[in-house]
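This follows on from our talk about sequence and fold. I would like you to pick a protein and set down its sequence and fold. Go ahead and set the record down below:
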Amino acid sequence: MSWLFGSSKPESAPAAAAAPTESAPAEKPKVSRTTRPLPSKNHRTFLLEMQTQKPRKLTQPPHKQPCCVCKTEKTARDDCMLFSKTDDPTQECKSMIDQYKACMAGYGFKV
């Protein structure tokens, strides 16, 4: 019975002779996905409720804050506006501004 209590001492010879008469404990069968028990009634009710709900639209991008999207376009636009040598930097950086507006519109923001 050393396997039950976890003793690290080796068993003596008389105890080893008595061991074959005792049956080894049966191992639990491994449960695979195919032999898994059926879900309970509550689980079935939950699945039925989930099937009747409206499905989420997967085509919409996840909602993000305006500060966290289009960072590269924003940086390019700001650098162009700040370091412009002309009197009217909006005319010189019009393409950068349009790229930023298009990017923000892609996320649903109106700039």
